[in-house]
Amino acid sequence: MKIAIGNDHAAVKLKNEIMEYVQSMGHEVTNFGTDSTESCNYPEYGEKVGRAVAAGEYDCGILICGTGVGISIAANKVNGVRAAVCSDATTARLVKEHNNANIIAFGERIVGVELAKDIVKAYLDAEFLGGRHAVRVAMFAEIEKRNK
Ligand code: RB5
What is the pTM of this model? Predict the structure, then answer.
C-alpha cells in the first residue's frame, strides 16, 4: 500500500517508529510531517495528508499529533477525507470496516508505541464491509455537497 503520514512537533518520535513499522510490513510511506520538535501548527500537516489521500495519490493516511484530534479535524475539512481518531485496535478495525476511514489518527501523548503499532496493523489489515455501511458512507459525500 502507498501510505501518507503526517505529524506535528508533538509526534516526531512516534511518527518515526510508525514509519519504520509500516515499511517493515512492506508498505511504501511518504512523510508529509515535520521532523522538528519545534512548535508548529498541526492543521498544516492534516491538510497536506488529507489532500494527498483525497486526490487518490495514496491508499490511506496516518496522522499523529499530541492527541490525534486537532490534526484529524484539519484533515476532515478536506472533501473526501474520512479521518478517524483511534486509541485502540478494535476501533481501528471498525473505522475501516464500517466507516471506510481513509485516514487514521492517534496521539503520541495518548498511546504508547506498541499500542500505536497494534492500531495501525488492525486498520491496515481490515477491509471495508460495504452493504449497509456503503449507504451511510455515501451520505458523508452528500453532506459535503450541501456545504456552501
Ligand atoms: C500541540 O501542543 C497539541 O495541541 C497538538 O499536538 C494536538 O494534540 C492537538 O490536537
Answer: 0.98
State the distance from the centre of ligand 1 to the C-alpha of 133, rounded, in angstroms: 31
Mapped onto helix, strand or coil, the DSSP state of residue 132 is: helix
Q: How many Å apart are CA 92 and CA 87, to the nearest integer?
A: 8
In whole angstroms, give the CA distance from residue 19 to residue 97. 23
* pLDDT one-digit tens code per residue, 48-74: 999 999 999 999 999 999 999 999 999
According to DSSP, residue 65 is labeled E
Q: What does the chain come to in residues? A: 148
Let me know if 98 is a catalytic residue: yes
- Ligand 1 is surrounded, with C-beta below 6 A, by 8, 10, 42, 65-67, 69-70, 107
pLDDT digits (tens, 9 = 90+) for 79-117: 999 999 999 999 999 999 999 999 999 999 999 999 999
Strand partners, 30: 4
Testing ligand 1's pocket by substitution, the residue of 42, 109, 110 carrying the most ligand atoms inside 8 A of its CB is 42
The torsion angles phi and psi of 106, rounded to 5 degrees, stand at -155, 175
Residues near 130 by beta carbon (within 8 Å), at least 6 away in sequence: none
